Amino acid sequence: MPHTTVHLLSAGAAKGLVLALQPEFERASGLQLASSFGAVGAMREQLDAGAPCDAIVLTRAMLDDLAAAGRVDAGSVRDIGWVHTGVAVPQGAAAPTVAATVTDAAALRALLQGASAIYLPDPERATAGIHALKVLRELGQAQPERLRPHPNGAAAMAAMARAADTSSVGITQVSEILYTPGLQLLGALPPPFALATLYSAAVARPASLPAAAASLLALLCAPAQAALRRQSGFEPH
């Protein structure tokens, strides 16, 4: 029986972009796209556990490791773009302007000091979560009772939006903030805490539908989708 579903394992940072392009991919290919999104560490764990996977989106560093191990087709690796780790608050929060909030370390510390809760992705397996916890510790704002870690950035931001606590703050990839209704992006983390992560895509080995997976990668990285990538939080490589 022929395969009719393309399986994608993807870092949560690319969720908005993938979902926006899914209808176009399915129309053009005549296939269904089944995607799993989460922290990059969790996605690699799924791959290692034998989850169905035709295409995979992770950090470039992780994909280079997988290519060296023969887990993805090295020749298929394509860069989607850079994503900054950013700061969010619920819409309607009595927050200062973006310029006054995240332009330097002192302003970021002041914002975090006033937060009733700080939402972040998994601080052990998510790129933004690992970095966020490091930043919070350096700023003296990592008190456990205020931290609200979640399995991935999307879950963390959705939880913050549902809580509707106007004194809460979220830290995760900008792309995850942008596709979560009810949140306001204040901006990227300021120096010296800024972090931009390069996300890339590859065809997995073995893939049931390698040609279709390659077509999906081409769509995600196509010049024609440059504006959509920017709107989704990706900056050109």
List keywords for this structure.
237 residues, alpha/beta, nine-stranded mixed beta sheet, 9 strands, elongated
Q: What's this, in brief?
A:
39% of the residues lie in helices and 25% in strands. The chain is of the alpha/beta class and 237 residues long.
Fold topology:
Layout lengths: L4 E7 L3 H15 L2 E7 L1 H9 L6 E5 H9 L9 E13 L7 H4 L3 H9 L4 E4 L5 H12 L8 E4 L2 H11 L5 E5 H5 L4 E6 L7 E8 L6 H12 L4 H6 L6
Parallel strand pairs: 1-2, 1-3, 5-6, 5-7
Antiparallel strand pairs: 3-9, 4-7, 4-8, 4-9
Helix pairs in contact: 1-9
How large is the radius of gyration? 18 Å
Estimate the strand proportion: 15-25%
Query: Distance N terminus to C terminus?
Result: 40 Å
Low-confidence stretches: none
Figure out the total of helices: 10
Summarize the structure in words.
It is built from ten helices and nine strands. It is α/β, with parallel strands linked by helices and 237 residues long. Strands 1, 2, 3, 4, 5, 6, 7, 8 and 9 form a nine-stranded mixed β-sheet that branches. Strand 1 (5-11), helix 1 (15-29) and strand 2 (32-38) form a beta-alpha-beta unit.
